[in-house]
Amino acid sequence: MSLVTHIAVRSDTEPYRRGSAGYTRITLALFLAGVAAFVSMYSVQALLPALADDYGVGPAGAALTLSVTTGILALVIVPASALSERFGRTRVMVVSAVASCTIGLLLPLSPTLEILIAGRALQGATLAGIPAVAMAYLAEEVDGGDLGAAMGRYVAGTTIGGLLGRMIPTTLLDVTTWRWAMQAGAVAALLAAVVMMRVMPASRRFRPQSVGLRVVAGNIAEHLRDRRLRILFALAFILMGGFVSAYNYLGFRLLGEPFRLAPAVVALVFLIYLAGTVTSSVAGVLADRLGRRWVLPAAITCSAVGIAATLVDSVPWVLTGMVLFTAGFFAAHSVASGWVGSVATRHRAEASALYLFAYYLGSSLVGAGVGVAYAAWGWPGAVGCIGALLAVGLALAARLTVLSRLR
């Protein structure tokens, strides 16, 4: 091989740096991947009161349409990451996007709640390929010094997806049924997925690996032996569980006493997600500059203050509290997910999958569990559960800081 050829090959495999065309394309593609996945995942959350009325079930029963999706996604996310080790990151993401969007277009045709729940479970399984691979894909292709900012853009995409997934269906409820409202969300997810597939760069630094059960189990065991990763996985469970719980039951609270807000007004509450769009990107940059150990506990504290403020029976207080809560959550998630890619220097797909397994398992289990507390004690019961989780999260963040200093 000539010297010129050798240099060209090395240059072609260098990681993307911030400001390069490749960095712009990959972060745009992952932003759109986050939009497509989260519109699909959360298009039912804003429709939970309508589903409860239509099918004659309580809040916890309606919430199963969301909990089953995230629960199945959590179970499939590790196998999906293993498949990406063999068949490639981009291929798995494309297949996942096509399959989940196709199912999403069919879900509004469900004649019964049971069929809707089964369809949502299948959609959760097909969705797993996007979040399972996205973090590993970025960690491989983006320079470590710019990884926090890149991960922040991906998380920002999830906030926009979460916002659209809630805003589009709820806004349409005033003029149509929940079925057409859900269909509109499915179309939005499909559009984001199509553009994602067109702009996403091919993997340049990926190398196929064996995906035998023994190999995957060994990789997982290696990550679980790292105390820092175990804490990050626990934080994922706690943070996402509390976040989804708050938004699951916020709509029920605002529609009921003492607020009695109209559905269209409640839909506007989801604009609060824009706070997370900003803080997820900003937190990634701050983590690169100031250090993750400072940004993470500050973000969790912001969430705790915010959820406490929602206890006041005043719309301004509730909205302000949810802004702080949402901003803190997405900042913390952006930092924690980027931290996983930094700590796990080998077998990153499995490390990312374990983080997301805990993340979505928290969404499913805590989201359903807090529903029981809400049924028994109303909004104060839900806030009490979420506040306790955040207190544990702060303790874990402090422990993570200590462990990081020792290395």
From TrEMBL:
CDD domains: MFS_NepI_like
Pfam hit, one: MFS_1
Major facilitator superfamily (MFS) profile domain sequence ranges: 26-405
Keyword tRNA-binding belongs to the record: no
Protein's UniProt keywords contain Transmembrane helix: yes
Gene3D superfamilies: MFS general substrate transporter like domains
Location in or out of the cell: Cell membrane
Keywords, sorted A to Z: Cell membrane, Membrane, Transmembrane, Transmembrane helix, Transport
Residue ranges of the TM segments: 26-48, 60-80, 92-109, 180-200, 231-250, 262-287, 294-312, 318-341, 353-375, 381-402
Mode of membrane association: Multi-pass membrane protein
Family: Belongs to the major facilitator superfamily.
Protein name: MFS transporter
Species the sequence originates in: Rhodococcus gannanensis
Lineage of origin: Bacteria, Bacillati, Actinomycetota, Actinomycetes, Mycobacteriales
